[in-house]
Amino acid sequence: MAAPLTLLLIVAVTIRAVLFRSSLAELIPERVEVVSPLNAWKRVVEGLALLDLGVSPYAGDVFHEVSPLSIPLNESNPSIHPSIMADALTAVALYLAVKDYNKTVFRKQKYALEAERYPLDCLELIRTPKEMYYIPLKVAMFYLLNPFTILSCVAKSTCGLNNAVIALFILCTVKGSSLMSAIFLALATYQSIYPLTLFAPALLYLLQRLYIPVNWQRSSFWLFTTQYTFMYLGSLCVMVCLSFFLLSSWDFLSSVYGFILSVPDLTPNIGLFWYFFAEMFEHFRLFFICVFQINVFFYTIPLSIKLKEHPIFLIFMQIAIISIFKSYPTVGDIALYMAFLPAWNHLYRFLRNIFLVSVVLLACSALFPVLWHLWIYAGSANSNFYYAITLLFNVAQILLVSDYFYAYLRREHHLTHGLYLKRKDGSEATLVLK
Amino acid sequence: MAAHRCNIFMLVFVLCGLTYVFVRADIEDTNHVKDAESVAVDIAPKANIGASLRSTKTEDQTQAAEEERQWEAETNPADAPSDNKADHVHDTMQNLDSRPAPYAKDQTQEAAEEERQWEATEVKEADRVPDTMQTPDVPPLTPAKDQFQEELVIRPLHSGDIYASFQFRTMWDTDFLRGSKVSHYRLFPKSLGQVISKFSVRELHISFTQGYWRTMQWGQPFLPSPPGAELWVWFQDTVTDVDGAWKELTNVLSGIFCASLNFIDSTNTVQPSASFKPLGLGNVTDQRFLRYAVLPREIVCTENLTPWKKLLPCGSKVAVCLMFDALMKVASSQSFRLSYNTSEICHNSYCKSTVWELRQTLNVVFDLHTSGQGKREWSLFKMFSRTVTEACPLASSSKVYVDGELFELSPTTPLLSQAVVLGDRRTYSVYDLTNQATFGQTRSLNMLLRWRAAESGDMLRPLLHGERYVAGYGLQTGEIHTLMYNNHPYRAFPVLLLDTVPWYLRLYIHTLTVTSKGRDNKPSYIHYQPSKDRLRPHLLEMLVQLPPNSVTEVTMQFERALLKWTEYTPDPNHGFYVGSSVISALVPSVVAMDTNSTRECPLFSSFFPCKEESSYFMRVYTEPLLVNLPTPDFSMPYNVICLTCTVVAVGYGSLYNLLTRTFQVEEPSPGLAKRLANIIRRLRGVPLL
């Protein structure tokens, strides 16, 4: 299994290296779909230039990275850019994580089969080792060869770095190392607030791994929860303090987190925020910012309750929701949750509109640059054209995620109630949500 | 109905009657006030002015000799070595700038024998009060310690246009800030005096400009200013809340000058660290007390002239104030600027006491060809539809200078004057309006300029010149190019470049390049303050050495921001203005450039080619920029809010559905309504009922 992965890595790195040396390397970093004010490489360089001039990088409104992360970037070897390394790291971490997760899934399925918990007609839903064998490789391939990831990497967006941290967090969680998991989760939160919502699935998974039931009366549950929370908050504190001591000022708090939460920069991107807040009436602005930001965090608790037995799927859902509803999304964020799609291969038969959604996603991806050109360069279209495409793109993403969620729930339902359901009169029944 | 109409008529009649009564009363009131004022003005100063005028006349010659000595002592600026390069540059610049250019004194004696006589002009201390009587702490004994000077400089430009520069200088020996409250104003405008004392202003400089000064065609103006409105103020160091004072001050000034100075806020105010030093007394270097703002979009027109005129002691009644007809022609002029400079300056050369100085200048460039019907001839009457008949009686000096010798002047004047302005030695014909002989028999002065040759000679190229433009296409990014020309054949000199760029053009300082003669030219000093969105602009100050005879190009990339729809101007597709960048420099003089001087001067004075005027301070403003930003569609905020919320609701709805509902086997025999609903639901892609 290691050989195909190595081959894949070599291919991916070669593609990126070739693109880095092509003329596209100047064009791609300017694309608004690929870089946002939060993660543009140009802004990192600007922040370091400001530091050279003796000005705090947070004195202006250009640099929005947390500082200790970007400084090593500057001293990196120019032949292999850190974004390539980050991509490779993400792919390997995802590969290992999914491999381990598949093992767990398979083991659970075996126990369930042995305990004869599955209805008899569900045999065709049972996953076989053969089909599961290539899933980790497919996940790595989906990440590394996804055009979105490649674009994001060639643009040197620091989004790849965020993805690597989240992938490492998933790996550590799956491996059951609660300390490392907490540290990486804190790191991801520290970079951009949103991964905070991954705290719940990580906790659920670790509890599950330790066979601690989620029970409010059990002291072991509370013990572990406090322990994990403490590790998480502690490492977050250490990182924030580290940033403070590096520049001896708290400016970065407003410049990074304030910037993410209050959305002052309305540069167009693929998200829902920019045009909405450009056209917003001033006195409703605060209200709608609160509504839109709460929207990202809002789904965590109901999803955790619904999916408490399936924390990895919950992680997937959370990452997808973050990348749809975050304030400055880029295609790199989408690439991360799309990498998980091969892991849900077995849900394919329950997906309702995967064809429509994938066609819409493809069409939108092609239309982004076209309409951008028409608006910004040709002047023959206006902002509404680009905005319409972002709307459609987001609708497609929402449908994709909810479709996978539906399919997952439906499969679970079938696994307990049987695949071929009958009505009372013996005729074939259709399953509906009620 | 008829009764109703009758009532209305009655009402109108009564109203008219009332209005008449009020207006009448008002007019009488003002008349009373005017009388009282004129009496007050008349009684006190008359004797004084007469005396001072006479004394200036008689003592002119002896004084000249005295002054000469003083000037020689003074004009060597202290070259104290300073750590900060920029500071050093500015200290010297300031010294040169704050004093009037030393006029050719050495010529006075010899020229007196000739028929035309050279005049010793611009003697700084005109009133002859002994120094011993004046100490800064004692309030002035006599109230009339202020004086007023006026002058008009007419300079034919090489493009064939006429440059007219009116200057009015009011000096007042008082202290607004210390001691008792000043309430009696004579010549100094009260409105401005009150503002200065209320806000503890040390120096105030305002200029309003319409049109652009074409430096390459017209040469250097006497007082450069950027297009639009410019305001810079030094506050006293006793001011604690400088930002608050600045905000109030701009609002007050906006009212006084009928200009939109109230649009100055934190987004266009900067605190330059080196480019703007006080021109008057006080060697303040703490930029916390300095505020600088430019409104490049400000449109200057005749309504700004009325408040300007009000600040003059003589108003528009007399003297050089033929300009008020000139003002009518503002629309047809090519460039037009108004400025006010107020600062505290030394009262005499020993700086034992200080006076407040207000300089009001009006510079106009007239297109000769539009009014002269192609003839190269120009006269006061033709241009202003009026001749000069008398000087302002309150003015201690009132003169008209005509620049150059390439034309015939009629009537001729016996007075000549030489001055070195901006490194260029020029000869001026002087008309002294306080002298009745100037007006001749007709009791009016109508100057007539007739060009001698068709060719107007070669113009002195400005040694320092700046240009600026935006490069790039599309509405996403762009690049600002600033070109600085050093036309001096063999001298390099440093310049300070000040750039203020609004926040919505996000500058990237790492893309800054400075190249001259194809090579990288590293600035020796950079002060950069990045912008904050909706709070403050970018500020970039650089000290760059310009190699001789070269063009230095400064480029910087920027990104155009998308603004909120309420932040756009009413005509967003017109573009957004970016204020001029300011180039300040100590430029080597042209006078020092000609080493083989043919003019007669003492041999001992020319051992070294370097002269007292070897360099002079100059400020150059580049063009303002007009930059387009991407715009949202202003017509559809409701649509955008509805559509985006719909998408969020789709996300919320589908997740909510899946979270709250459970799978169940379908009920048999759905009703018609249910079937229809199912069709719709199938289309929507949501689970069936």
Low-pLDDT regions of chain A: none
Q: What can be said about the biggest beta sheet of chain B?
A: 12 strands, mixed
Shape of chain A: globular
The dominant shape of chain B is: elongated
Determine the structural class of chain B based on helices, strands and strand pairing.
alpha+beta
Structure annotation, total helices of chain A:
20
Write down the Rg of chain A: 23 Å
**Which H/E pattern describes the elements of chain A?**
HHHHHHHHHHHHHHHHHHHHE
For the residues shown, what is the average pLDDT of chain A? 91
Beta-strand proportion of chain B: 25-35%
With strands numbered from the N-terminus, the spatial order across the biggest sheet of chain B is 1-13-14-11-2-3-9-8-4-5-7-6
Q: Which regions of chain B have little confidence, pLDDT < 50, spanning 5+ residues?
A: 25-143
This entry's quaternary arrangement is heterodimer
InterPro entries (chain A): PIG-U
Signal peptide (chain A): 1-25
Protein name (chain A): Phosphatidylinositol glycan anchor biosynthesis class U protein
Keywords (chain A): Endoplasmic reticulum, GPI-anchor biosynthesis, Membrane, Signal, Transmembrane, Transmembrane helix
